[in-house]
Amino acid sequence: QVQLVESGGGSVEAGGSLTLSCTTSGYTETWPSMAWFRQAPGKEREGVACTDHTGRTSVADSVKGRFTISQDNAKNTLSLEMNSLKPEDTGTYYCAGATTWRWCSLLQSAFDSWGQGTQVLVSS
């Protein structure tokens, strides 16, 4: 059974930093593509950052220059380094993996495996 488990969420003041981690299990191959999504209270889930088997990464415009995604295949871990956090970054952050879609994508439909989420609260 494929599992994705996020960790690293918490409360931080604006301008602070957090690093989220996603540990995967049950999938014996290298993930073709993975991503981080987030959902703010009362809003739809949105893509934040993605990476794929070529090493290509992409981030949403709203977090460009502040967030960095990285993948460690040896450790089955996906990370999201978040700096200069803003109150609008508050939400539940989800790790997602795609077993068939092979390219970096910020679309939910590309991903077939999801974690349960970890909460991030940024206070002003």
Can you put this structure into words, describing what you see?
The protein is an all-beta fold. It has strands at about 5, 10-15, 20-25, 35-40, 45-50, 55-60, 65-70, 75-80, 90-100, 115, 120-124. Strands 2, 4, 5, 6, 9, 10 and 11 form a seven-stranded mixed beta sheet that branches. A four-stranded antiparallel beta sheet has the order 1-3-8-7, with no helix packed on it. The mean pLDDT is about 95.
Strand percentage = over 45%
Please state the structural category.
Answer: mainly beta
Uncertain segments are none
Helices and strands, in order, run as EEEEEEEEEEE
Counting DSSP H or I runs of 4 or more residues, the number of helices is 0
Strand segment count: 11
Distance between the termini: 40 Å
User: Largest sheet at a glance?
Assistant: 7 strands, mixed
- Could you tell me the radius of gyration in angstroms? 13 Å
What's the overall geometry? Answer: globular
Give the helices and strands, then pairings.
Elements: E1 3-7, E2 10-13, E3 18-25, E4 33-39, E5 46-52, E6 57-59, E7 67-72, E8 77-82, E9 91-98, E10 113-114, E11 118-123
Parallel strand pairs: 2-11
Antiparallel strand pairs: 1-3, 3-8, 4-5, 4-9, 5-6, 7-8, 9-10, 9-11
